Amino acid sequence: MSDTARQAAGHAGADADDDATLIARSLHAPECFGALFDRHAPAISRYIARRLGPDAADDLVAETFLVAFARRGRYDAARADARPWLYGIATRLIGRRRRDEVRFFCAIARTGVDPAAEPVADQVTDRIAAQAASRELAAAVAGLSQAQRDVLLLVASGLGYEEAALALGVPAGTVSSRLVRARRKVREALGGQDPTRPGRDSQE
Amino acid sequence: MKQLEDMCGAVPPPDPRRLAGTRARVLTAIAEGPRPASRDARGWPWLATPAKPGRRWPGWVAPLAAAAAVAAVIAGALTVSSAIHRHRASPQASRTRGILIGVSCPGPSRCVAVGEYYQPGPPNALIGRWDGSRWSIMRGPAPPAHAHADLHGISCTSASECTAVGSWTRNSRQPATLPPPTRTLVEHWNGSAWSIVKGPNLPVPSSSLSAVACTGTSGCVAVGASGNSDGLHVRTLVERWNGSQWVIVKSPDPAGAIYSFLSSISCASAWDCVAVGEYFLGGHPQVQNRVLIEHWNGFTWKVVASPEPPGSIASYLSAVSCTVESNCVAVGTKRYPHRKGDFYGGPREYTLIEHWNGSSWAIVRSLNPPGPPADGLTGVACMSAADCTAVGAGGRLTPPGSADGASTLVEHWNGSAWSIVRSPSPSANSGLSRVSCTSAADCTAVGGFGDLDNPQSPSTLVEHWNGSAWSLVTPAASK
Questions:
Q1: Position B62 confidence tier, pLDDT thresholds 50, 70, 90
Q2: Mutate to test the interface with A, among B18, B30, B229 (most CBs of A within 10 A)
Q3: Closest CA to B330 of B312, B354, B347
Q4: Within 10 A of A135 (CB to CB), how many other CB atoms are there?
Q5: Are residues B31 and B314 in contact, defined by beta-carbon separation less than 8 angstroms?
């Protein structure tokens, strides 16, 4: 088989492999890591952009995948889905910039302008309403502890409790309790409105 | 979490062009290879390099003043009059951000070390000399045009007779998915100058030499591997200097191995050499590298049966030292799966030591320092059956969110047991790569050290054993 044919075959195989297999293959064929990047970088980029803004996302996405590449030998091959692992690395890197993150959310709260979000409405009144909501929410998120913010934004980004627990390296019960406290704080900051159930007040 | 999901969902997908740029940065960094604080002589960065202390990745920032200061002294920046490979001279080189990978001391107060120094772009070869009072950078020969060189191993039989081996790689202007091809590199020191010695290469994309052992001016053997750039179909490579030229010597590979690689060689005589390394059979992703030991009887190389640590998912040998035909010690790393409930994530890695008694290899009980199970030995030097020194790195606990840390690790064999010997670690990410001894009271170990915020930019590290304690050869600025 020619090199070109082998590469093509390798890439075709990469598309079909689960994350654990890709990572294991990358131990001996580092280019396989490119397939993992293609698969998960867009979501990781959005997650980082949500927490630190779009300008910081490029660098941190690169750093996330370089850290992941360096630690691929330590990846638990029993876990087919690498998302919790990658989100965990990204979260730890974000944690080093916690002051930047708080400043980012405070700026949204102050100005109502969310640099990470795309325009949500054309009507001026809708835009103002959206800005008001995001200002309150951003202020509430900025007021959370780092651990609570990690849990809240991981789950809001689509990870389940178990996945968030894997990402943060804590038991699922800890994720649950942190989430309860975070939601309570946010609800209080929003004047009793539960961000998880808009339109009605709710109790934990 | 409706509102929060809306908030997160409002983030648009990343710009594909920016993401493509980020992808190129990542793949370029991967292709350039890791820049750890310590490393064994496995010269191919694109080969499987199981994660271990000192193998760090995050981005490059300006070096710490402390690191630069120590590196400057080690590199002889205050005294040195020349740079490394002469066409590669740069201000960065004179500060020696880099690591030392190999060292050979032909006599007391005489050592030569090789490694690589870092500047923007690919690493370049570094040669340093200890004259008993200070280290200085040696002027090396220029690598081929538009290429950079790496030196991984060195063997000196006298102050005027050294051979260093490694590889050279043509510089790539474009980020590439696959690393560019490499060719073996042999350099010779005749007492007054270094020169490149022409050597053979197999008709495969990549060949690299990891280590060399010389038993006299007319006898040197170098080991490494050759194969495809994708890290597959890699085979052991052995070259021998017959007094007038380097020739390839046929070497075996374990049956069914996807790749096999020799990291280190030690010769008790020209007719008795042992090379160690690793091989990989492929298959289940949890089953990884295995120990490889080969023996040269003066006529042929043969694979020697070697024990695997029971229950390990991977193991490899990084260095070997033989004093006589019936006494060899090999050191490396063994890996076990992550244990549920462990505070420290990922598989567990421990030191591995094996001993040859003249008829068989056996695993010897080795020690591991307290801290995260991320330990490994990468260098060993034996003076007798009752005096061996092994060096490497041990896991070090670091704050959450930081890169993994490492401390230098030194162990000593007194004829009946191994013990850990206290050694300095100039930073939270320090490691030793190789060691060379001329007596029980004179050993020199080399490696690198960096900091956790900038773990990809280590500085060279040299330590010395005077018979009672290990010390930094040059005082490290406190960090």
A1: very low
A2: B30
A3: B354
A4: 18
A5: no
How close is the nearest chain B Cα to the Cα of A156, in Å?
5
Which run of H or E residues covers position B266?
Answer: strand B259-269
Q: Which residues numbered 106-165 in A keep a CB inside 8 Å of some CB on B?
A: 114, 116-118, 120, 133-134, 137-138, 152-153, 155-158
pLDDT for the residue B319: 96
A30 touches chain B (CB under 8 A): yes
Q: Is A5 exposed, middle or buried (0-12, 13-18, 19+ CB in 10 A)?
A: exposed
Render pLDDT for B86-103 as a digit per residue (tens, 0 to 9).
333 222 333 467 888 999
Between positions 80 and 119 of B, the ones with CB within 8 A of A are none
User: Does the global pTM surpass 0.95?
Assistant: no
Please name the residues in contact with B457: beta carbons below 8 A apart, sequence gap of 6 or more. B35, B60, B61, B63, B67, B97, B118, B450
B residues 198-237 closer than 8 Å to A (CB) = 228, 230-232
Which of A33, A47, A152 has its CB closest to that of B4?
A152
Query: Residue B76's closest CA among B381, B388, B471, B474?
Result: B474
Q: Best interface-test mutation with A: which of B26, B336, B344 has the largest number of A CBs within 10 A?
A: B26
Strands (E), chain A: none
| Residue whose structure tokens are 């699922």 | A172
A37 touches chain B (CB under 8 A): yes
Strands (E), B325-469: 327-336, 348-356, 361-364, 376-384, 387-396, 405-413, 418-421, 429-439, 442-451, 454-465
Give the whole-number percent of chain A exceeding pLDDT 70: 75
> How many alpha carbons lie under 13 Å from residue A88 in its C-beta half-sphere?
19
- Cα–Cα distance between B460 and B432 in angstroms, integer? 10
pLDDT of residue B75: 28
Structure tokens at A104: 């980012």
Which chain A residue shows the shortest CA-CA distance from B279? Answer: A28
Q: Residue B343 has what pLDDT?
A: 56
Cβ within 8 Å, pair B58-A29: no
Tell me: the pLDDT tens digits for A88-137?
999 988 887 777 787 788 777 777 677 776 654 444 545 555 555 677 78
Query: Any idea which residue has 């779009």 for tokens?
Result: A54
- Asked if residues A58 and A65 have their Cβ atoms less than 8 Å apart, the reply is no
Asked if A86 reaches chain B (Cβ–Cβ under 8 Å), the answer is: no
pLDDT of B57 > 90? The answer is no
Q: What is the percent of chain B with per-residue pLDDT over 70, rounded to a whole number?
A: 73
pLDDT band at B194 (very low <50, low <70, confident <90, very high): very high
Interchain CB distance below 8 Å, A74 and B231 = no
Model confidence over B164-183: pLDDT tens digits? Answer: 999 888 776 554 555 567 88
How many pairs of residues across A and B have Cβ atoms under 8 Å apart?
178
- Calculate how close chain A gets to B356, using CA atoms only, in Å: 29
Pairing of strands B246-249, B235-241: antiparallel
**Above 0.95 for ipTM, yes or no?**
no
- Within an 8 Å CB–CB cutoff, is residue B51 touching chain A? yes
Q: What is the pLDDT of residue B395?
A: 86
Which residue in the set A28, A37, A63 is minimally distant from B232, CB to CB?
A: A28
> Do A76 and B346 make contact, defined as CB atoms within 8 angstroms?
yes
> Does the pLDDT at position B50 exceed 90?
no
Task: Tell whether the model's pLDDT for residue B351 goes beyond 60.
Answer: yes
pLDDT of residue B32: 61
Radius of gyration, alpha carbons of chain A: 19
Shortest Cα distance from B347 to chain A (angstroms)? 5
